[in-house]
Amino acid sequence: MTDMVIRALDESDAQLFDAHPDPLNARAAHQRTTHRPHWKRVALRDGAVVARGAWWGGPDDEEPVNLNWFDVAEGEVEAGAELLRSAPWQVELEINLPSDWREHPALAAAAETRFAAARAADYELLVERLLYRWTPERGLPERPGRLVFGPEPDDAVFFDALRRIHAATLDAHALKAIAAGGLDQAARQEMEFFHWCPSPREWWQLARTPEGELAGIHIPAHNPSGPTIGFIGVLPEHRGRGYAYDLLAECTHFLVEQGAQVVTGATDRGNFPMAANFTKAGYPVVRERINFHPVARTASGAR
């Protein structure tokens, strides 16, 4: 096998990124995503692209926040692994897949090639996620009318609610943050993400019972790709009453009232209650996302 060359791209040769098959239809998943040419890298063998990666960040980010487009040719697992190892950014890897990829051998094989490259580069599986997309023909979900919604300008109120919600969470990213730095870190990371989103802070809402008890929060948001369900959370003492659906329905209505024609959402594959709520609210699964994260290595390279 001939030697491999790994290159960063720029505006002059960005077309090289497109010189590779797209069996998982990643391009469709990124129709509303802007990738900077100089955050793209390719692995070449005999001048042909055998692996490629596009790192992504918001318009004001100086460094990428994740790698959300990663392709590896069949038989080129090591090329894909080296593309990851040699990158100047060691961030979370998102592998976006068609919703039915497990049902088709060719798609499953293409996905496994990417997984194998990630594992070879010392990335570990973090979580499998379901991606949803609401459109107007689905109809707006019915508002149950059981909770009272309103804004709250004090960040400390949301921070405290997030700590309480994450004390009994199923979310893999929150659990990772808790393991690293406790409930404060998990709540802080959520707050930082919501502030990073370009949508107004005034959109964040508390949900209270008619008696005035705080039952949960919902955060309608815009990420750089469009309107999205930023966060749905029910306080532990109010769970078991189906309030997550109430929050999701209200969040959807709120975004549509702000002009949204499409609303996206996501939940961990193992979060069966939230997945059921998305289905009930008229959100079909449109893709799946497999999240890997890099494992820290010592200076000697040992795990």
Task: Summarize the structure in words.
The longest helix has 25 residues. Helix 2 crosses helix 3 and helix 4 runs antiparallel to helix 5. This protein is 30% helix and 29% strand. The C terminus is likely disordered. The chain is of the alpha+beta class and 303 residues long.
Question: What's the gist of this structure?
Answer:
The protein is an alpha+beta fold and 303 residues long.
Structural class: alpha+beta
Shape: elongated
**Separate helix tally:** 7
Strand runs, count: 12
Which key phrases capture this entry?
12 strands; alpha+beta; 303 residues; 8-stranded mixed beta sheet; elongated; 7 helices; single chain
SSE topology:
Blueprint: E1 4-8, H1 26-29, E2 40-45, E3 48-56, E4 66-72, H2 77-85, E5 92-98, H3 105-120, E6 123-134, E7 148-151, H4 155-166, H5 172-196, E8 205-208, E9 214-223, E10 226-234, H6 243-257, E11 263-268, H7 272-280, E12 285-294
Parallel strand pairs: 4-5
Antiparallel strand pairs: 1-2, 2-3, 3-4, 5-12, 6-11, 6-12, 7-8, 8-9, 9-10
Helix pairs in contact: 2-3, 4-5
